[in-house]
Design goal:
The protein is mainly alpha-helical. The protein is built from 3 helices and no strands. It folds into 2 domains: about 1-30; about 35-95, no CATH class.
Length: about 100
């Protein structure tokens, strides 16, 4: 005849299994779990891409600002901006639409 576990051993076994299941669930789904970590890594990569795009935009704007400053005036850029923003033309030019 097989030996049966005592009530205390059965309770201990059930509690051990339940605690193991709880900790396994917390390791996967919890606030510090594997799924949350993957989500944070994806968000980090997305934010780094956005940061790099913004840095490139800022660098481009700084370059344009420097080229139109009093210290360094790029006449070609000034001419281009005047034509685009103000709609200016030279006297010898013809506008075709």
């Amino acid at each position: 005849m097989p030996q049966r576990l005592s009530i205390g051993a059965t309770v201990f076994l059930v509690l051990t299994v339940l605690l193991s299941l709880y900790f396994a669930y917390a390791a996967v789904q919890g606030p510090s779990g594997i799924l949350r970590r993957i989500q944070i890594q994806a968000e980090t990569a997305e934010l780094q891409t956005a940061r790099d795009t913004l840095r490139a935009d800022v660098a481009r704007m700084q370059n344009l600002t420097r080229r139109l400053s009093d210290d360094y005036l790029d006449l070609d850029l000034l001419d281009e901006r005047a034509r685009e923003v103000l709609g200016l033309l030279r006297a010898d030019e013809v506008l075709l639409r």
